[in-house]
Design goal:
two-stranded antiparallel sheet; binds iron/sulfur cluster
């Protein structure tokens, strides 16, 4: 995936999340992530702090964030309500809304089967 496509997909995911739109495959993807050992919970401040701490490495590897060290494994708390992937570093409620985005471990493949031509958008 090119850098431009990745940026476009990230923006699309955030916009769909912010406006409450999701696709048929979104709930299955999120369920898969909830069960995965590579998911983590972070506050926005913690995530921005991690990005800042790894700033140069993040910029150099923007299309391959999987190459950077994992995000810390943390449990959901009152202050940590955002679900991220420790491997790809993505905000999962946004990423899971974009058909082109992939799980770095291929765990979404089964959920996506049959949805290839389905671009229907459901209410949140
Ligand atoms: S995107 Fe894949 S590897 Fe990351 S948390 Fe979800 S299921 Fe796990």
């Amino acid at each position: 995936m090119s850098c431009c496509n990745k940026v476009k997909n990230i923006v699309t995911g955030y916009v769909k999340y912010a406006t409450g739109r999701k696709s048929k495959f979104t709930p299955d993807r999120i369920r898969t992530c909830h069960k995965c050992n590579e998911q983590t919970w972070m506050s926005t401040v913690e995530y921005v702090s991690w990005l800042t701490k790894n700033g140069i490495k993040v910029l150099k590897n923007f299309t391959e964030l999987e190459k950077l060290s994992k995000l810390p494994k943390q449990e959901q708390t009152k202050g940590r309500r955002n679900l991220y992937c420790r491997l790809c570093k993505c905000f999962l409620p946004g990423k899971a809304r974009v058909e082109d985005m992939k799980c770095p471990l291929g765990k979404w493949q089964r959920e996506n089967k049959g949805d290839k031509n389905d671009s229907s958008i459901l209410d949140k």
